[in-house]
Design goal:
6-stranded parallel β-sheet, 14 helices, Rossmann fold, 2 domains
């Protein structure tokens, strides 16, 4: 790596019992920075953020004082913007690693949404720099909060075995915590309209993040008599998740808000095409090669369009072949974690 590492670099992250894209990003980035020779010291903060921020404020403040350069997970930084400001006013560099914006989550009260926006604006403006996972996210921050000092570090992806794909393409996957923002209810609604076709679907992800939403989803599946065809698995990792990828033909991401969508890159790493939500960072993750997209984007919440896309996928062999071929070509162009780490390290040390 051409850029020298700061002598004392800290990485302040949030520990969660539920696997998330942000946690995976933090873990892989840590490994890659260390492999590149960075003098990295990682500190974990527990609790449910931002709800538990007050009880951890003193610990976060003490940690931030301990090193001159900090990379801070956005879920922490945007809960304690005053501590970010104090650190930069002391002459320290604090770079926020943005995974998502809490103010974009569906189901928030107007009061909570306004509070999160104020916290985000204060933290992001106080930071020395912001690292985003996509150009889409960087553009969004400029429009929302006037943030211009950003660096784009797209998440890397690990080399993965190619999924052969079944002839019928009828094994569908939604991967992400069960929440209104991820909108698995919208996916189920579209599937109910193609119930006459042969397919099966798995909803993989944290099913205790929003117990009320999970309960509503299970109730809807029972009412539509889809509970035997749509399996809610809970969060999966390791070999269990590898098995799911090996048994998937198409990823369907109905999320209303995404700064990038690592699951899309993970699908492409297996040669699996994807349907994503337009107007989000997931479109950037899907990408294209020579003008050919390995899937498609549909408008957020547009059940009719999603239904039409699924019906065509399930009935059009030529479409399946085209999307699979495009996914395999896109697979060869995906960002590596070492590429991601090089961009982050440059953002940390460059003034």
């Amino acid at each position: 790596m051409a850029q020298a590492s700061p002598t004392t670099l800290g990485f302040l992250t949030w520990s969660s019992s539920v696997p998330t894209g942000g946690n995976v990003y933090d873990d892989r980035l840590t490994e890659s920075l260390l492999a590149a020779g960075a003098d990295l010291h990682r500190h974990h903060v527990r609790g449910v953020w931002p709800r538990d921020s007050e009880q951890h404020r003193a610990a976060v403040a003490a940690v931030l004082r301990s090193r001159p350069v900090w990379l801070v997970d956005s879920i922490i930084a945007c809960a304690v913007p005053d501590l970010v400001a104090e650190a930069t006013e002391r002459g320290q560099r604090v770079i926020i690693l943005l995974h998502s914006l809490l103010s974009s989550e569906l189901g928030l009260s107007e009061t909570d949404q306004q509070r999160y926006r104020a916290l985000e604006a204060a933290a992001l403006r106080a930071a020395s720099r912001v690292v985003t996972p996509s150009q889409w996210a960087a553009d969004d921050l400029r429009q929302r909060y006037g943030i211009t000092d950003t660096a784009v570090a797209r998440p890397g992806v690990e080399a993965s075995p190619l999924t052969a794909g079944s002839p019928s393409g009828n094994r569908l996957l939604s991967l992400g915590s069960l929440t209104p923002t991820k909108d698995q209810l919208g996916f189920a609604a579209a599937l109910s309209r193609v119930a006459q076709l042969p397919w099966s679907a798995r909803l993989v992800g944290g099913d205790r993040v929003r117990p009320d939403y999970t309960a509503a989803l299970r109730r809807s599946l029972r009412q539509q008599r889809l509970d035997s065809r749509i399996m809610i698995t809970g969060p999966l990792t390791g070999s269990a998740l590898d098995g799911v990828w090996a048994d998937t033909d198409l990823l369907v991401l109905t999320s209303r808000s995404e700064t990038y969508a690592m699951v899309v890159a993970e699908a492409l790493a297996h040669g699996i095409p994807a349907v994503v939500t337009g107007g989000t960072g997931a479109v950037e993750a899907l990408g294209q090669v020579d003008g050919i997209v390995p899937g498609t984007a549909v408008p957020a919440g547009d059940t009719a369009t999603l239904t039409a896309v699924l019906q065509r996928w399930l009935t059009d062999q030529q479409l399946r072949d085209e999307w699979r071929a495009a996914a395999r070509r896109r697979r060869d162009t995906l960002t590596t974690w070492s590429d991601c780490a090089a961009i982050v390290l440059t953002a940390l040390v460059d003034p």
